[in-house]
Every structure is written in structure tokens, then in C-alpha cells.
Specification:
Structural class: alpha+beta
Helix content: 10-25%
Shape: globular
Number of strands: 35
Largest sheet: 8 strands, antiparallel
Number of helices: 14
Strand content: 25-35%
């Protein structure tokens, strides 16, 4: 029987496991790197152990330190979560050799699926359909997909459409895979475009019972990382579902699987091809839990204790859809900084690794939370999600909230017409309406809230309206970097029902609307949340400080990170789109390209250097004709 469980992970998944442990009366242990010292998962555990350092290799990937933490706290079991060491057979073996309970599959099963090359061979033997493996040096056909043999999460994957791009893609995938998983092995296979990404949740005990808990649709992805997942898939027939589940069970039996795992497939029409098997709990497991009425973490723990599963799994009821809320901008670049406010309300499930005030570090994945809607129908689940996302108060870092709403409201998504190219430039979102600028009323609300705050701070005649004059010489206006508004006199048809520093209620032509206003002195931003979303505004100071100007042609770091590679020197001639250097941030490579044809007039960084967001990396002097 498990009495004290250490979760060898961080953030959302650590909190998720702790939640089930509390319901079962199991004591919990957290581990944390230095950047995570004040993270919510640390505060929620009964005991916590610091892993000195920031880099994953020195902390969450250090097997010896994890085992030392088990000994120091008296933990008798280890749950690996997902990512990091969750699919590391050596780690599973070390846990078992230390006399601890391993909440996961046998090391042999992890090793069998840990190499995607070997996994494909085993699956073919088991009668599971697979794609051909091609020669990385000369695949013979294009387009192809370069894939890391180890790990997952889209890292170490590159699409290659032309022979001349292959060598660089293979080398880049190897570096990224080695950095993320400690293994730079890659392989190449045909790219099956516009296919669905469908996976089957399996659960097996030590007594020979293997469950297939239906399928999940995970086709909406960016950078090969999932963004939206749902259960069941809207595009899978009953006959195809049966084929997928049977293939997943055969896969699990082939390798003697025990515990929770996921078998992933590409599906195009009636064609099915094995992708990989994830020998761990998946990020998207909540949609299966809500549809099948199970707690997969509890079942993992019970299986690890030797409890047999019932002969047959429960049946599905209803539909569930999950979105991943990331700290990233519109170009999918990860963001870091302080999450000033994180509030998500509504009839949804929220699994998060953050809370208001959390610091989003450049060292780890930028996912903030998973938000899951469920209902008797797919439309009901989606409607709940859209409402919760629009009402969420997310301040301090840029998120993909608007993208998620656009996806959920897209007609192709509503029709269930999803595939892995959904978010590509020629995918269904290509015709989406451009993001609207902040409307007049949110800006007006910000101005009125600022005026109310100024009046509240007044030490002389506090009863007078803000900015009051005996003889008015001009209208009163507020200037923001994004917009400007006159708030006295009010725009035609607008009346103020109430104006406080944190809330403004306006009425226009008989329609009343409330605006929640928050201002943070640390960054000077004002956030106005309303029924249509959130307006982020930056007040223009009356007496602005001198601004340091950067030289024309400067390439600025889009995020904090480490310089992985510099590919040019001062004096080099470059063309638009050519790689100038590569940054590594949040475990992924980010290519910094020349914005135009020109000459490199200066390189301001070197390999291995840490840079802050906005730092000048290089200067390209544009050529003029």
C-alpha cells in the first residue's frame, strides 16, 4: 500500500496527482528547482525538496537527486507525471531497485516504446498498421517528417518538403531532442498530410486485463504540439473506433503493458497508421475522465498497488473538449514574466500549474492551464469553454486565449472537420477575421477608472470630480499607446452608471455593460475585462522619460533565452528569411531570421550567452537599390 508519494515533476501535473492523493489519504512530496521554489505545486504538497539549479538536466531530469529526495522524505512511491523522466526506463528501473513503488509501466515496456524506431518494428509484428521508415540521408520521397526517437511534445520534429532542407532539419531535430530528452536519435517517415491525430487511452493491470477507454481527437496542433483535444472524436465512425481500440489493446499486450498509456495514430479516411505509444499519463487525460467517469490517476495508483481492474471498462457518456492555455504570442513564441492575475470561472474544469502572481519561467513549457468543458453534447461542451475563456481574467503575460476562442468558434471546427494542418497558413483559420482593436467603451472605461483612482488619492477637496475646473477650456481626454479617448464630455449616447477604480458601468443607447478594470504599477498596464474579451492598454505619461532608441535594422530577442548558435559574422551578406542565429527558450529552438536583404553590420551576442527579451542580437543594414 502506498503511504507517501513523490511526484517527480512540476506544475499542473504535480498538482493533479496531489489532488487525487488527498482524496485517498496519501501523503505527498514535491520536488522543485530554484525557479519553482514558490510554485503552487510546492505549497500544496505535504513535504517538498529543493533541487538546486534551474536547467532541467540539473533538476527534474537528475535521477540521483530524485531518489535522494525519496530517501530524505520517506516516500515509498514515485509518480513521474508527463515529460521529464516519465518515459525514461532507467529511471523506472532505479526507482524499483531502490525498493519503491513505481506508478507506471514496467521498465521493459518503457524501453520498448522509448525508441520510436523499435516501437514501429514491434507494432508491425503485433499487426498494428505503421508508416514506412525512410533513410534519413536519402528518403527518396518528399514531403517527409523528421522525428525524435525519444520523448514527445512535438520536440525534435521537423517537416521537410525539399531535399536541400533535409540535412539542416535532421541536425536541428537532433540538437533539440538531445537537449529535451538526452537522446539525439531521429528517424524519417512519409508525411501524411491533412490527417487526423487520434489516440486511444489504454489501462492495464498486472492480472492480464487491458482496457481501451475510447479515443481522443488531438488534431488541432501548432509546432506539432496539441492545442485542442476532445473525446470522442467527431470524425471517427463506430467501425473505425473498434479498429483503433483493438489495435491499441494489441499494442499494449505485445509489450506486457501495465498502467495508463496512450497509443497514437494518424487517421486519413479509412487509413490508420501507428504514430507512437506514450508510456505515461497524457496531458489530455481529463477529457477521457469526464466522458468515462473515471479518475485515471486513482486507477494508476491502484494498479501500482496490485489491485485488479474490473473485467470490462465503463462506457462513455457525453462529450468533453479541452484547450491548452499557453503563455505565447500570436506567432506561437513563448512568453515569460509575472502572471499578475489568473482567474477562470464557469462550468468548466481547470487543471493549472499557476495562480495569480506566478512567475512564468523561460526554463519550462509555457502551458499555464488546461480548461475542459463537458456536456451531454459536443456543442454544449464547446459553448461552456468559449464562455469561460471570454470571461477569464488573464493579466501580465500574453496568452493564446483569443486563438483558442477563434478555433472553437470556427465553422470547420464546429463541423468536426479537423486535421493536423488546421493551424497552418492555408488551414481553416486562414480566413478568420483579424483581431479587432480595443473598442471605444473599454478605453473609455479605463479612462474613467483612472480618473476615479486619481480622485480617491486626492488629499485636497476629495469631493470634487477629477479634473474639475470653474471654466472649462478644453475637453478631458486620456491617452494610451493603443488608443485615445475623450471622456468629458462623454461620447454621444453614453451615460455613466457607476465609475470606481476597479469597475465601470456604462450604458449606451439603453444597453448596460460592466467593465472590470485592473492596473498594475509594476508594468504600468491597465487591463479592462468585459463581455467581449479583454483590452490591454498602456497609459502615456504626461511627462515621458527619454527613451533609448535602438539602431535601425536591429534584431531584438523576442523572449528571454540562451543563444544556441550564431550563423553569421559582421560583414556577411544575408537575404530575407535567412537564419541569423538560433535561440533556445522553454526547451525549444527559435530561429531568428533576417527581416530583409542586407549586410550584417554587427553581432552583439555569442554562443551560450543568456539574453533578456528585447536585447539587441544583431544589426542588419538593409540594402537600398
Amino acid at each position: 500500500m502506498i503511504t507517501r508519494l513523490l511526484v517527480a515533476n512540476r506544475g499542473e501535473i504535480a498538482r493533479r496527482v496531489f489532488r487525487t492523493c488527498r482524496s485517498l489519504g496519501i501523503s505527498t512530496v514535491a520536488v522543485c528547482s530554484d525557479p519553482d521554489a514558490d510554485a503552487p505545486h510546492v505549497a500544496e504538497a505535504d513535504l517538498a525538496v529543493r533541487l538546486p539549479g534551474a536547467r532541467p538536466a540539473d533538476t527534474y531530469l537528475d535521477i540521483a537527486r530524485i531518489l535522494d529526495a525519496c530517501r530524505a522524505t520517506g516516500a515509498d512511491a514515485v509518480h513521474p507525471g508527463y515529460g521529464f523522466l516519465s518515459e525514461n526506463a532507467d529511471f523506472a528501473r532505479a526507482v524499483l531497485e531502490a525498493g519503491l513503488v513505481w506508478v507506471g509501466p514496467p521498465p521493459e515496456a518503457i524501453a520498448a516504446m522509448g525508441s520510436k524506431v523499435e516501437a514501429k518494428r514491434l507494432m508491425a509484428e503485433a499487426g498494428v498498421p505503421v508508416l514506412a521508415s525512410l533513410d534519413p540521408a536519402a528518403p527518396g520521397e518528399f514531403p517527409v517528417l523528421v522525428k525524435a526517437s525519444a520523448g514527445g511534445g512535438g520536440r525534435g520534429m521537423r517537416i521537410v518538403r525539399e531535399p536541400g532542407e533535409l540535412a539542416l532539419a535532421v541536425e536541428s531535430a537532433r540538437r533539440e531532442s538531445a537537449a529535451a530528452f538526452g537522446d539525439g536519435t531521429v528517424f524519417v517517415e512519409p508525411l501524411l498530410e491533412a490527417a487526423r491525430h487520434v489516440e486511444v487511452q489504454v489501462l492495464a493491470d498486472r492480472h492480464g486485463t487491458v482496457w481501451a477507454l475510447g479515443e481522443r481527437e488531438c488534431s488541432v496542433q501548432r509546432r506539432h504540439q496539441k492545442v485542442v483535444e476532445e473525446c470522442p472524436s467527431p470524425g471517427i465512425t463506430a467501425e473505425l473506433r473498434e479498429r483503433l481500440c483493438e489495435a491499441a489493446v494489441r499494442a499494449a499486450r505485445k509489450i506486457g503493458y501495465v498502467g495508463a498509456g496512450t497509443v497514437e495514430f494518424l487517421v486519413k479516411g479509412d487509413r490508420v497508421a501507428f504514430l507512437e505509444m506514450n508510456t505515461r499519463l497524457q496531458v489530455e487525460h481529463p477529457v477521457t475522465e469526464l466522458v468515462y467517469g473515471v479518475d485515471l490517476v486513482r486507477l494508476q495508483l491502484e494498479v501500482a498497488e496490485g489491485v485488479p481492474l474490473p473485467a470490462a471498462p465503463p462506457g462513455p457518456v457525453g462529450h468533453a473538449v479541452e484547450v491548452r492555455l499557453y503563455a505565447e504570442d500570436g506567432d506561437y513564441l513563448p512568453q515569460s514574466g509575472v502572471l499578475r492575475r489568473f482567474e477562470v470561472s464557469g462550468d468548466v474544469r481547470v487543471d493549472s500549474g499557476v495562480e495569480s502572481g506566478s512567475v512564468i519561467s523561460p526554463y519550462y513549457d509555457p502551458m499555464l492551464a488546461k480548461i475542459i468543458g463537458s456536456g451531454s453534447t459536443r456543442a454544449e461542451a464547446v459553448r461552456k469553454l468559449v464562455t469561460a475563456l471570454r470571461r477569464a481574467r488573464l493579466h501580465g503575460v500574453t496568452t493564446n486565449r483569443d486563438l483558442l476562442v477563434d478555433i472553437l468558434m470556427n465553422p470547420a471546427f464546429a463541423a468536426g472537420d479537423t486535421h493536423t494542418g488546421f493551424l497552418t497558413p492555408d488551414g481553416p483559420l486562414r480566413g478568420a477575421a483579424p483581431r479587432q482593436e480595443a473598442g471605444e467603451l473599454p478605453v473609455l472605461a479605463a479612462a474613467l477608472a483612472m480618473a476615479a483612482a486619481n480622485r480617491r488619492r486626492a488629499k485636497v477637496l476629495p469631493g470634487l470630480p477629477s479634473g474639475w475646473r470653474n471654466v472649462r477650456s478644453q475637453s478631458r481626454r486620456a491617452r494610451f499607446e493603443e488608443a485615445e479617448v475623450v471622456y468629458d464630455p462623454l461620447p454621444r449616447g453614453v451615460t455613466v452608471v457607476g465609475a470606481e477604480p476597479q469597475e465601470v458601468v456604462l450604458e449606451r443607447d439603453g444597453v448596460r455593460q460592466s467593465f472590470q478594470v485592473a492596473r498594475y504599477d509594476e508594468d504600468g498596464k491597465i487591463y479592462v475585462d468585459h463581455a467581449g474579451g479583454c483590452a490591454e492598454l498602456t497609459p502615456v505619461p504626461r511627462l515621458p522619460q527619454p527613451v533609448e532608441h535602438v539602431a535601425p535594422g536591429s534584431l531584438l530577442a523576442p523572449m528571454p533565452g540562451s543563444v544556441l548558435r550564431v550563423e553569421v559574422e559582421a560583414g556577411d551578406r544575408v537575404v530575407k528569411g535567412q537564419a541569423v542565429l538560433v535561440l533556445e527558450a522553454m526547451k525549444m529552438e527559435h530561429r531568428i531570421a533576417a527581416p530583409s536583404d542586407g549586410v550584417v553590420s554587427g553581432v552583439h551576442v555569442e554562443k551560450g550567452q543568456q539574453v533578456d527579451a528585447g536585447a539587441v542580437l544583431a544589426i542588419i543594414q538593409e540594402e537600398t537599390s
